[in-house]
Amino acid sequence: MTNYLTEETIFSLGEVISESIAAVETSLSQPLAADVAAKVPKAAIRSSLRASTWDGVFATLFSNITGGVLLSNFLVELDASTVQIGMLASIPMVVNLLQPLGAYWADRTTSRRWYGLCVYGISRLLWLPLAIAILAFNAYSTSNQTMIIATLAALLATHVLGALGSASWLAWLAVLVPRQLRGRYFGFRNSAFSLTSLVTMPLLGLAVSHFPGGSIQGFGVFMLVGIVAGLLSLACQSRMTDVNPQARLTAPEPKSKPTADATAAFSGSEAAHTSMLKHPHFLMFLLYFGVWAFGVNLCNPFFNLYLLDNLSIDVSWVTLYNGLGAGATLLMLVLWGKLADRIGNRPILVLDGLLVAIIPLLWLGTGHNSISLWFWFPVLHLLGGGAGAAIDLCINNLQLAIAPVRHHTTYFAITAAIGGVCGAMGAMVGGWLAQSTGSNGITELFVVSSGLRLVALLPLFWLQEPQSRPLGHVWQQLKQQADYWFLGIKPIELPIGCK
Q: CB burial class (10 A; 0-12, 13-18, 19+) of residue 198?
């Protein structure tokens, strides 16, 4: 969810069906989830998963055009400041504060499908006036600052509406995707999105960079293409089996004997926020998620700015690097999904998080030279895409595993709100620091971000995930595997409870 995560995030994901995801559901939530999911026929589930993947493919194309490196390059062409670039990154996250309100409204409707179509349909159509304004930019000699403000205003309006639908959409998928299918399904689903980015991002970068009327006009033309892709995404979404949010209120309670914490979490008369206060592991997850979102977004929005502005690298090169990152994500997501099914999500977040935490430090010393252009930047994007794929996948699966089923929508909304606000604060603070500290400000952010990412991992050592392997056991298995690879010592299987 770097939906966070976002989205950003997150997101803000052809199907492969997995038979083992016990590591991502609590034993108490299984009976309740099964009762709700049992009302959806298997044929309807299969067609819904297929439609959901195509929905995500077109939505990815829409997001790649109306966000990311192309939108950053557009603002750089307009001479936007680092603070404005920070606002570009923070707006989609800070509006997640509205997700609890969206969850409240969505849970009082009788159709996940129609709620999503209305919210996201209006949200995507709001890009149309901006696309027309960009195409008319040169003809009417509009000032750069006016166009920057108009872009940020359109971004704010569209993402406000999008935030109102995010929790409902995730709760919809939580019902449609059987718990035993989630790990590898979401991993493969996200791989389809990465493949879309891998193919389209370099092509879009070349097309915009070499557009006959200039890159600004080219961006306006392809924004129209993105809007069409966004509407096709909604057409696919309309083919997914509808779910009535009211059904969860009449779902039977689990027959298994609950523990004290689970009783609080599943009480039908208890408010979601009261349940959360009695759910320490979810609170620990929120602490991790908030600090991680702040640390990551302190520098992540400025990688592309560093390449485009500080180093003056052409946008076609930058989109190529982003495409390489998407390719690495594509290759690694299925592997991470299978590994998460075996050992759980928490160990991956800790061990892979250590690698992701040091990646910003590897950007230090790069520049506009042949070694960086042909070696370091491709390697850094490949490493970031491959390692970062596990973070988004496992964060999403971890919250699905520990959030009470009866309060799914509210818990997801609160998670997104906290992550969004912390991520937005990180982006805004990063933009202010980069602008106030001069030409070396962005590289200094890389160091600070790396330190905060390491700090964010600490709550994971106290968080417990149902059926997850202990960290000590996972570390011993990795050590034995390394001994086998390099020394020829055959691994010995350790008991799961080994510390």
A: buried
